[in-house]
Amino acid sequence: MPVIPSSNQPIAEPTSHPAPNSASRPVCLFIPSFGDGGVERMMVNIARGIADQGVPVDFVVGRRDAPFLDSLPATVSLHALGRVPPRERQRFLAEYVERSRPAVVLSAKTEDDRIALAVKAASSTDTRYFLRPGTTMSERWRARGKNWLKRWWEQRELRRLFQRADGVVAVSEGVAADIASVTGIPPSRVRVVRNPNITPEFYAQAREPLNHPWFGTDQPPVIMGVGGLRTQKDFATLIKAFALLHARLPCRLMILGQGRQQGRLLRLARDLGIADDVSLPGFEPNPYRFLARAKLFALSSLWEGSPNVLTEALALGTPVVSTDCRSGPREITRDGAFGALVPVGDVEALAAAMEETLRNPPPPDLLKEAVQEYRMDISARRYLAAFGLIAES
């Protein structure tokens, strides 16, 4: 195997897999643009779930020390490319496909999709290439104020990409409908598989100790927000809604996550006179121990695909309130039956829904039952069925 230059570490030698039939050939999850968000965490869980089903898995990333990778089992072969340009990523993938003959290559970000499908176009193997869209592109364009020319260009690129893929697996019905509309591919070519949020260790992580004064006895209820501090999550609306609620009910707000908006959000809390009861402690590797002890989880997003933390809060029996953004919250809460839905950006409606839920919380067992489809083992089997590697169950 040729050596690809890296600025930080050598590429791990890949494991050679035999290629007799598709059931024993590896599934390759290709995400060299690996970061620290929900897409990355779900790709790790997909790898874990598929490996647990006895299928070989190769996992291609940029950095070996990236978040979440430490949860990959030894049965998953990890390939860390280092900081290399896209052309070197493409060369690695092309040589890997020729050598290991994976049954499937799954990518989950547009920049990685381009590389994977360029390899597909030049390859003579029978490897099949699947894309995994995780958000509603039309809503993201609208919320970010894309002008018509940029939107036309991006839509044109997406059409070219998705029409060349062998299959598409969307994280929600809303994302599936949006991708079909944006790209022009037949809706029948898009499969929906729920995110593998609920892992075998999920509840044990939620029970881990939490030594934080806000969660002591006789403390005001804590409302949780979780996510990157960026435009999509619209935490400014959550903080403003919290300020209205705070004036009527003793409570606190904690938002776990990091991003360039942290300073602006803290200034907003100070300007509203609620800084002492608002905390933005940064990234937390185990948010579940916070969610399990919170009295309410609030999602204020402008758009989503399938918001993982909303599913996870319900799985822990924590009451939820969410904006009715596209897409995910309406599907996850079953049209609001398992959590109040409010219009996007509506500060007063969000404050009122949070107050009502805090005063009249639903039974935890009812909330937990709503999200059983999001178990890792169920999701993994549905991915393998979507890939055509096992029969539908």
Automatic annotation (TrEMBL):
<feature type="region of interest" description="Disordered">
    <location>
        <begin position="1"/>
        <end position="22"/>
    </location>
</feature>
<dbReference type="InterPro" id="IPR001296">
    <property type="entry name" value="Glyco_trans_1"/>
</dbReference>
<keyword id="KW-0808">Transferase</keyword>
<dbReference type="GO" id="GO:0016757">
    <property type="term" value="F:glycosyltransferase activity"/>
</dbReference>
<feature type="compositionally biased region" description="Polar residues">
    <location>
        <begin position="1"/>
        <end position="10"/>
    </location>
</feature>
<feature type="domain" description="Glycosyl transferase family 1">
    <location>
        <begin position="218"/>
        <end position="370"/>
    </location>
</feature>
<protein>
    <submittedName>
        <fullName>Glycosyltransferase involved in cell wall bisynthesis</fullName>
    </submittedName>
</protein>
<feature type="domain" description="Glycosyltransferase subfamily 4-like N-terminal">
    <location>
        <begin position="37"/>
        <end position="195"/>
    </location>
</feature>
<dbReference type="Pfam" id="PF13439">
    <property type="entry name" value="Glyco_transf_4"/>
</dbReference>
<dbReference type="GO" id="GO:1901135">
    <property type="term" value="P:carbohydrate derivative metabolic process"/>
</dbReference>
<dbReference type="Pfam" id="PF00534">
    <property type="entry name" value="Glycos_transf_1"/>
</dbReference>
<dbReference type="InterPro" id="IPR028098">
    <property type="entry name" value="Glyco_trans_4-like_N"/>
</dbReference>
